[in-house]
Amino acid sequence: MDLISSLKMAGQSLLSNKLRSFLTMLGVIIGVGAVIIMVALGQGTSSGITSRLSSMGANLLTVSSAMSAGPIRGAGSSTLTMGDAEAIAELPLVKYVAPEASTNSATISAGSATWSTTIDGTVPELQTIKNWPTIQGSFFSDSDVNSLKRVAVLGQTVVTNLFPKSNPLGQTIRINGLSFTVVGVLEEKGDSAGSDQDDVIYVPITTAQQRLLGSQTVRSINVQAESTEALTPLKEYISTLLRQRHRISDSADEDFQVRDMTEILSTIEDTTKMLSFLLGGIAAVSLLVGGIGIMNIMLVSVTERTREIGIRMAIGATTRAILTQFLIEALLLCFIGGLIGVALGCGGAQLLSVWADLKMQVSPWLIAASMGFAIMIGLFFGYYPARQAANSDPIEALRFE
Amino acid sequence: MTKILIKLQDITKTYYGAGEPVHALRGISLDVMRGEMLAIMGPSGSGKSTLMNLLGCLDKPDTGRYFFASQNVMKLDRDQLARLRNLLIGFVFQNFNLLGRSTALENVCLPLVYAGVPARHRDQRGRDMLRMVGLAGREHHLPRQLSGGQQQRVAIARALVNRPGLLLADEPTGALDTRTSEEIMGLLQRLHREQGLSVVIVTHEPDIAYHCQRIIRLSDGLLVKEELVSQPRQSIQVG
Prior knowledge:
heterodimer, A: 2 domains, 12-stranded mixed β-sheet, two-stranded antiparallel ribbon, B: alpha/beta, Rossmann fold, 33% helix
């Protein structure tokens, strides 16, 4: 018996009971759709974290004041100083050091346009650490820092809002009433885990401290180590150094913290991966339940069609032909259900990423795997009913009312 | 080529159900010749259905010797029996046993599907068969859109599409009125005459049986009487 005839026969028998076929398929549709959405969510989240990891710069330690550590930027007063940053720069295994001193949200205006964001005072090394090229002009220089120049480097979001039409380079912006000259525009970096990395203005740290903050403290110090292996010893060195500089006795708590951002984010990444496995697992269970539904309906269908099986056997259908026929019906159910599920899953992922602003990543691999899974479900749960049909006794089957 | 199509010798068949074993056949010997038209008669419980199933290779006897077109049926397995049924035997049932969701043409072509005939040849063969039984133009009707007589003719077309040597008809007119029964018997006689087909009809109606050249009667699992009909009844030709 050829495949096309088998497919035709299976299609005909599924079409003859459309509602039942659809309801049976629904289990697979929902299962496959759920697998796709869940795994796409997991993969999207972890790839977001990975891209944030790489955009943060490699081998990075962040030293921040213990008091200001937390979600609110610049809350409390920091105990870190420029002197601390300079001392850290002298430590072995250190490649670059970039202190940052940032304001609370400040109002910026250029002509009639206004925007409000935080101003980040830093040094040119930050650009190297973050591996963030300028697309116009250049980052400010060490001499700009030393001479407290009022210059600013803008992120793309700021440019879009302040200079929607004109070229920002060389223009003047006013930050809390003080005028700054735009010397550089940074390349777009995009969102990272919900925060817009391009909504940023960099100014020389000295200028920020003197003119905007009125404080010599530093919010945080970015330290890039020479290698990944250097991170752990360097953490110790910085801790020891700062305890000394801040005169903290051995028993007292530190007033600063050294965080390995890469490590933190990889932990988050691991968690997300586990979460996506978990979500995928739950979705797979629903697919499995769909498979059981298929088996159930196929068994009912075999019983209902006992007479048909008998007729087919009488006119010469072999065991194999009957087995193939019912197996193909189950497979066809799963295949079509899988296709609809893939379509719904991809559509759902698209909708979620637009409406709920979730990072979704649907890979061809994921589609292939969930289709494969659906087909395996069909084979597995279709086999037993098909086997039962194929083993019917033709005489009994013909006599069946 | 031998004249004997089927040779049964000392066939027994016993069914072991819940209660007492049922000795359906208790030693039957019977030859069916090529091109013969034979009727099997007997009251219910006489074993004629069992004999029919054995002749149709739907089942195998418990003991005895059974040759079908020189093949030893006792030695065939399930799938070999299916193959034999497919190519050498055509079935016609009392209740037609057509597939309700398939058209007349699809029903007729089904044995060709199982015989492995390529799709492009099946259609024409099916149409030819339907024309032969007088149903040209009804190819795409579903069984429920056809009358009983027409359905039985579709069944006959299906039974003969693989050009088997034997047509086995189990009460072929049991569900039909007298006039339609006559038509169906006429068709069977014509096919028997024109194609040299062996026809075995199981029936309890003498009127039907006397269309055949030979009548055997069963009782209690044994062959009790054999009668040669010198002048078989002829039916009006249709189609």
